[in-house]
Amino acid sequence: MQPNEIIPMQHEQVKLRQSEKSDLEFFFRFQLNEEAGYLAAFMPKDHTNREAYLEKHTRFLYDPTIHMQTILMDETIVGSIAKFEMEGDAEITYWLDRTFWGKGIATIALRKFLTIETTRPIYGRVAFDNTGSQKVLEKGGFVKIGTDKGFANARQMEVAEFIYKLT
After folding, report:
1. The CATH number of domain 11-166, selected from 3.30.565.10, 1.10.357.10, 3.40.30.10, 3.40.630.30
2. pLDDT on residue 8
3. How far, CA to CA in Å, does 157 sit from each of 37, 94, 146, 149?
4. Is 156 exposed, middle or buried (0-12, 13-18, 19+ CB in 10 A)?
5. What is the pLDDT of residue 104?
6. Which of 3, 149, 150, 160 has its CA 20 to 30 A from that of 75?
7. Could you tell me if 43 and 153 are in contact, meaning their C-beta atoms sit under 8 angstroms apart?
């Protein structure tokens, strides 16, 4: 094995469980990574406000329209994945700690999530230049169906996003 060689994840190493309030501290820290925030693009204005983040996401834990799961790798919290509703449509969102990118974890987590979250159709949106997230959606069976534009707080400009759909 060479240094920095990507080792494929074993499917059973990646687990999902219902998110808990104590997980929110991890999720908050993950989204503070500047590179991750730039790629996600569409974030709250002040994503660094810990109290506001925890208050908002604590409400999400108890919202019956939101299905939030914590992504674990060998019992370590590495991210989150959720279904939420926007304007009557089910949408998917996920976030992986930057240190775990490029290992197939998000793809495995998405596939596992889609076996327990059966709402269809379900949509995914991703910034036009976030190729990693686009690949995750495509490997999960999502098909690109269109584009949209919106103001991205993380970039302080209007950004094009691709819209994906899984039926």
Report:
1. 3.40.630.30
2. 54
3. 14, 22, 20, 10
4. exposed
5. 95
6. 3
7. yes
Contacts for 88 with CB less than 8 Å, ≥ 6 apart: none
Q: Is the pTM of this model over 0.85?
A: yes
What are the helix (H) ranges across the chain? 24-30, 34-40, 50-61, 105-116, 131-139
Q: Which residues contact 100 (CB under 8 A, 6 or more apart)?
A: 73, 78, 79
Say which residues have a Cβ less than 8 Å from residue 150's Cβ, sequence separation at least 6.
42, 158, 159, 161
pLDDT digits (tens, 9 = 90+) for 18-57: 999 999 999 999 999 999 999 999 988 888 999 999 999 9
How crowded is residue 128: how many other Cβ atoms within 10 Å of its Cβ?
Answer: 13
Take residue 37 and report the two structure tokens written for it: 């925030």
